[in-house]
Structure formats: C-alpha cells, structure tokens
Amino acid sequence: MLPTPEELDVAAVARHGLLEFMRRAWPVVRPTDKLSLNWHHDIIAKAFEALLREEPEAEKGVVNIPPGSSKSLLTSVFFPAFAWGPGKRPEYRVGYGSFDINLSLRDSGFCKDLIRSDWYQRRWGFKADPEMQKRYGLVPVTAGQENSALTDSASIWYTSGGGLRFATSTGSKATGWHFHSFFVDDPTKPDTIKNGGDQAREALQGTQTWWTGTIASRRVNPNYFGRWVIMQRLHTEDLAAYAIREGYTQIVVPSRHEIGRGCSTPWGTDPRTEQGEIFWKDRFSDKGLTDLERALGAHARAQYQQDPIPDGGSIFKPIWLTNRYRVLPAGIEAWVQSWDCTFSGKVTSDYVVGQVWARKLANYYLVDQVRFRGGLPETVAAIKRMREKYPKAIRTLIEAKANGPAVMQVLEGKLSGLIAVEPEGGKVSRAHEASVYYEALNVWLPEGADWLQEHIAEFLAFPQGAHDDQVDAATQALNHFHPGAGDRLDRLHAALRGG
Which distant-in-sequence residues (6+ apart) come within 8 Å of 251 by Cβ? Predict the structure, then answer.
C-alpha cells in the first residue's frame, strides 16, 4: 500500500526538520509566491531546532541579515507551528516583538491560519489519521477554543496542547506572561535611527532596557530561556551590538561577501568564497541589489552589509580627513571656540566637547579639543581653561541646548565673546552643510593629537555611530566660521583688548 501525501509529508519533516516543514507548508501561507530557499535559511532553521532541544549555544542568538530575506516568516510563522507539531513541543510558549505592532499581528495571523488549515490538521492535528498519530507520535494541536478561559485574540492565543503565541511591540509591557523563548524581529524603526542624535540614542536605549528588563524576566523555565534578536544592523549601539557584547551566538549575513567576515556558526557556515558574491542569487541580482543600496545611500552599509560603520564613510569620507599640520601657519585671521554641552556628568550621558578652530583664507585648522563627561561646573571650568590657553579665541560658540543656556548664564559678565547658537535643522543637515569644507580639503587636523583617531572614527561613523558630540562641535564652528564672516567682531574684541 502506497503512503498517503500526509504520511509522506510527516515522514519528510521528521527526517529533515524545520526547513523541510517550511518548504512543504509554504503554499498554505504564501500560495501565490514561489518558494526560494537559501543556505542562510538552513543555518537559521537548524539553530531554532537546537533551541527546541534546549542546547546551550542556541539559548541566546542574534541574526543580522538584509531586508527581504524571509526571516520573519521562518522565525514568526513556521517556527512555532513546527514546534507544536513536528517539533513535539505542544506546550511551547513563544513571544514575539517588533517596532511595529502591525507586523507582529500580521505574522500572528499567518501562523494561526497555518495551524488551523486542513493541510496542517491532517498531518499534526486532530484530523490526522489515528494510525499515523500512533506511528509518528503526533500530538494533536489546534487553535480551536476548547477552553473558553484561554484567550484567542489577534495578538495572544493558545493551542489546545497548551502552546502560546504572544505578539507585542517593542517597549510594551508583558506582565503576567511567561515564555520558553522570545524573539524580537526588527526592534527599532530604521527611520528613527537614520538621522542619529538624541532621538536615535533614546530609542536604542529604550529598546535595550525593554529587552534586558521587561523581557529577560518573562521565563517559564528559570534555567533555560531562549532569546533571539533578529534584525538588520542600524547603528553601532543597536540591540544587536548589545547582544554581540553579551556573547549571543551570531548569525551574520552580509548581502555581499567580504573576505574575512565569513559567517561561521555551530549549525553551518557561509559557503561564499569570492569577494562581493551575493548571499542569495535566486532572489537578488547584482543590479537589483545595487538599486536597493543606492536607495538607502549611506545606510546601505549597515542594513545590507551588517556593518553600521560605513565603508568609506557615510557623510564624511576618509580622504577628506587626511590633511595634517604640525605648526599653524603665520597670519591666522580669526579664531573661534565651539562647545557642545550635555545635561549631566553621568557615565551614561553624552560627552561635552570643546574645540578651538583657526582660519586663514579658505583653510580651517582644528587647534585643540577637550572631550569629557561632566555637568555644569565641569563645563564652565573647561571653558575658562580653554580661554586662558587660547586668549585669541574670544568668540565662543555655545549651542543653546542641554545645559548650554545655563553655562551662558553662569559665564555672563565673566567672559566676553559668548555666542548662543540656536541650531537650525537636524544634526545630519548641519553636517551636510559643513561637509563642503571637508570635501574641498580645506580642513586641517593636528598631527599627533592623542584624540585624533577617535575624532576621525566618529566622523566616519556619523550619523550611525554611538556618539556625535565631536561632529556637532566641528560643524557648529565651520557653519558659523567662513572667510570674511565675523571679522568685525574680531576687530571689536581686539580694540577692547587695546590691540
């Protein structure tokens, strides 16, 4: 007697696992879309199977992969359905979070439709043949509402085997719910991060606090709690960066291969060997991927190569930062100090940055810089020291944000030349405005300064880097300070000094 289609599917999935389940269940979930599987799907599927077996290396993981890689379907739709049926974990309780609750609800609906489908029920549910259940050890699973005390909403629902699928948005509460594993799929909205600055840092910090606080305590098993971060890289301090620092097992998939960055995991390795080789040739052509990268511009490096420090710089290019000087030229025409302040001196706060700039003709020289974490008293003291060190740099720009106004108030009547700068536009637009001076190779940096490499690194990473205080101070100076501008003020201060 020939085996039935149901028996063939069950036997194949039992033998080959989650990826085979995805292959066979695909027409139920995406009936009009052609299925294309790739090596990265195999690695992720094997990792999730290890998670079900509660293997140590699979307890905490991070997947960094380009957009459009079917990561959400594999993670949020096929994995829980596999766990309850072929995975023989009918009691498995799994939570999902995303920056967009609509994405979480979409995948929750796909998963519910799958396990309620006739296809699934005939293989791993109540409709499965009794003989097949006996032969393969199937556990009936359904999303039917046998127990009216159990919720069956769009975001939270149980199976009759005690399984749970929970969907929420990043930052939301999960009090009272407990899980065997929790996945966050795209935890932060890319548009929030692209412009950098305080808004980006606050969003990233909020996500990390939610992940390490709210979610970390929501475990069924106190000894093994699966936690996986699934995302495209966005920033040097995004949730993936935290996961990597904490030792999560990494699955990193750059869209184009880079020799030396090959992905190697307990469940498989990146098979590519040629520089620039595309990760999924059946889906992405070179032209198609190039078009996507161009559309993202400076952010393509982060989101498609999983490297949030842009190759070749984002706004500022490496070649623009190569001019060095040992001694300032004679005949400096004007000086300026530029200060970017912060609110407090806590270890988690931004840096205070003070810079001294000099101009001769069309060239601009960064003369000195201080960078520290400090509150109002430390900032005032630093400005006074800088004035004593560079008495010609009377014109002192102080951004009228954070504790800048308080600094101005304390120093009023004690130092002349204080100028409150009301920032116009965002940090990124101000950086673009000032970038013309760098592009023209009119900016010179002091050779041998102990802070120089860190300074350059911040410029190249901007606006996706962890900090932007040095960039803010420099662009504030350069946008204020161009040939001919402010000379009358310089002459006025010279007259007041009697020179």
Answer: 40, 43, 44, 47, 61, 62, 63, 64, 65, 263, 265
8 Å CB contact between 271 and 280: no
In tens, the pLDDT along 449-492 reads: 999 988 998 898 888 777 889 999 999 999 887 643 334 444 44
Q: How far is CA 459 from the centre of its chain?
A: 18
Cα gap 340→379, rounded to integer Å: 10
Distance of alpha carbon 335 from alpha carbon 318, whole angstroms: 26
Distance CA 317, CA 239 (A): 26
Residue 179 bridge partners (DSSP): 219
What is the reported pTM? Answer: 0.72
Cβ neighbours around 483 below 10 Å, total:
14
Q: What structural domains does the chain harbor?
A: 5-305 (3.40.50), 318-496 (3.30.420.240)
147 in Cβ contact with 191 (< 8 Å): no
Q: Return d(Cα 180, Cα 163) in angstroms, integer.
A: 10
List the beta bridge partners of residue 270: none
Question: Residue 195: its pLDDT value, please?
Answer: 66
